[in-house]
Give the backbone structure.
Amino acid sequence: MAKYESSIKQVAYAQASVYAKLSDLNNMAAVKERIKDPANVERMKGQVSEEQFEKAKEQLDSLEFTADTVSMNIPPVGKMTIKIIDREPEKCVKYEAVESPVPMTLWIQVLPTTDTSSKMKLTIDAKLNPFIKVMVEKPLKEGIEKLADVLAMIPYE
């Protein structure tokens, strides 16, 4: 197994609020809708190429949520589902890739820093053979850091 960790991110919301949102994946549907807001679409278009924007839009449109799962279409892999497999109230949510060519788990740890703020760290544990590891190590490291950045910025109210 290969383990990749994000840096620790500061979150401007209480631990309970962050945990509540991350432990029910239906809450992430609101993030999808917020990203589709015309003002946000215009801002994103200025930051990426038209082709990148269209690919991101297709992936965003393919997202499906339940309380315990999020599914998305990832070319050329196809449909991939992430499922919550464990919840440690207010401290940690553990997810597993259910339909993935690479078995992996992701967990998000949340700890309080004050009554109104917290910090989080993401960890991916992936079962990679040595050949695949060489190819995906850098994208996994970058991806977990970007995901942590995004999760640290979303509103948890």
In short: The mean pLDDT is 86. Strands lie at 2-5, 9-11, 64-65, 69-74, 78-88, 92-97, 104-112, 118-126.
